[in-house]
Amino acid sequence: MSEIKRRAPNPIISSSLSEAAASSVLDGLDAGFDIEEIAPDRGPKIRGEAQFNQEKLDELVSLSNKGAPIPGQSLTNSAESPYDWETPPEFSNPREALDNIVGSIMKPEAMKNIVTALAKGGAVADIGTAILYAKFNEGKISPDTMMMLAEPVMYTIMAIGEEANIQYNIEGNDLDEFDEEDAAEEFDGKVNEFRNVLTDIKKGATKNIDASKIDSKVVPESILAQIKEKGPEIKSLLDRGEK
Amino acid sequence: MGLFKSIKKHFKKITGFVKKTIKKTVKGIKKIGKKIKSSKILKALAIAAIVIVTGGAALSTLGATAGAGAFGTAAATGTGFAGWMTGTAASLTSTTLGAALATPFTALGTGVGTLLGGATGAFAISNAGGAVAATGAAATGSTVATGSTVATGSTVATGSTVATGSTVTAPGSFGAGGGFGTQTGTLATGGSGAGTVVASTTTAAAAPVKGASWFARHPKLTSALGYVGTTVGGAALTGLTQQYIAGDPETQGSMAGGAVEGAEYMDPLQVYASQQGINTDSIYQHMMYGNQDPSSQYGNDLYRQQTFGVA
Questions:
Q1: Three-state SS across B152-200?
Q2: In A183-218, which positions are buried (b, 16+ CB within 10 angstroms) versus exposed (e)?
Q3: Is A150 a residue whose pLDDT tops 80?
């Protein structure tokens, strides 16, 4: 098969990964890529539906009931042995930090856990938060870097979900959010189409009624007289009628 | 507000932004007359984003499903969408991150499939040729595909065949009867096997050195230019040829009257920075994405370049 020659990608730069990705996809479509080439379909997806589990909820509640530190407690700690996050972060450059985090996410063991979590209904935002918070706790990144890396880490997890062919939650239990919106839009489109067709039929039907051409043997005289009298005012049987 | 609460709030904001972008992209695509499902757009965005984030390293990392498309063989040869996005895939998979990343999906293989056995739907992860064989992988009688690498500590079972061009890293070992195809390299330290190692017969092409001149990095084009130079002569060098001679064609273009347009007129980064009120002197403090982002283009080497030592 001969290779299709496409134009080079347009220069793209953005402070948001979402926008850069969207621009790349639109640029790719413009360059002649089919959506199937960009995002190939690999059959029905695994539904990562979140299941309510009372036992787990109770466990979480009991954990949170164990109490929090007393305000100011950290100030009583020895300055000689600070927590990891109290020391200068290992990665001051966000790009280096991102490389380190993506590198650790892409490790088989981590990947296995992420795929399992996504398939069991874990949300991308929650997994991303957990990863970044853990890195902050380990003293790898500063809170500012953690915030900056939220978007790329989320997208990395989403890409893993896509590669594993899982229909995942992005936030909470929003598995079907996009599908529902698509369905609602499609329904609205079809209703509008139907309305247009009806209007066309109605217009065409009333316009073409010529009383002189109607066979009096088929239509009773009284009704024919009504048609002559009312003409275009006659409403279709499918008309909504007056409210 | 506590730290964790503010993180949650920030993530919520980003999640909302991601969703909004998907909807915006769907609208944008519908404008150009294409009816595409939102979930498909989400997938396309995720693929494009991971390529941007990893600078193309994801091509090999997530390339376990070797079908056509972004992460498949088409991408690896630079013909898929991801390959197109990143220029030549091969150069980007050799980035620092690319080298550091494992090939988790291949390593996971059917293990995760079994793990998720109860779930309905197709699990896409599979072992495929062209990727790194996972530690402890390669069953009896299996074939390790051409171009694969047998990872450290792996065992290739009895009767298996390692195809030509594969690499066995230390301390890989072969069971009795396991053998190599014709190799063009050296068996690494600790590697052993009952097969025959054929001496290298071809000389591998020299890999382009990072930081080398543009001419050195484009030997084919340079030799073509030499031919053009010899044939046409210096006086007749115009248009495209002049562009190549003048410097990197990706950053310079010809202007009317033979003048060469400087990079500053074509630099989207500078335009973007001025629009956003960013001082280009502190550009690296701003996290940016896209094919014009300097850190995407140059990778971590930018931060590891030699500087003056402070005494």
A1: CCCEECCCCEECCCCEECCCCEECCCCEECCCCCCCCCCCECCCCCCCC
A2: eeeeeeeeeeeeeeeeeeebeeeeeeeeeeeeeeee
A3: yes
Q: β-pairing, B143-144 with A166-167?
A: unpaired
Alpha helices (H) in A106-220, listed in sequence order: 108-119, 124-137, 143-148, 150-163, 177-207
Domain locations along chain B: 8-102, 129-200, 214-284
**ipTM value for the complex:** 0.75
- pLDDT tens digits, one per residue of B59-93: 555 543 333 344 444 444 445 787 787 664 333 33
User: Which pLDDT band holds residue B51 (cuts at 50, 70, 90)?
Assistant: confident
Q: State residue B164's pLDDT score.
A: 55
Coil vs helix vs strand at B253 = strand
What are φ and ψ of residue A46, in 5° steps?
-75, 130
State how far residue B126 is from chain A, nearest Cα, in angstroms: 9
**What's the angle, vertex CA A98, arms to CA A96 and CA A99, rounded to 5?**
65
Looking at mean pLDDT, say which of B75-89, B135-149, B205-219 comes out highest.
Answer: B75-89
B49 in reach of chain A (CB within 8 A): yes
| CA A13/CA A152 separation, integer angstroms | 15
- The domain segmentation of chain A, as residue ranges, is 83-175, 177-233
Which residue of B22, B51, B81 is in closest CB contact with A33?
Answer: B81
The pLDDT, as a whole number, for residue B59 is: 57
Give A 109-128 residues with CB within 8 A of chain B. Answer: 110-112, 115-116, 119, 124-125, 128
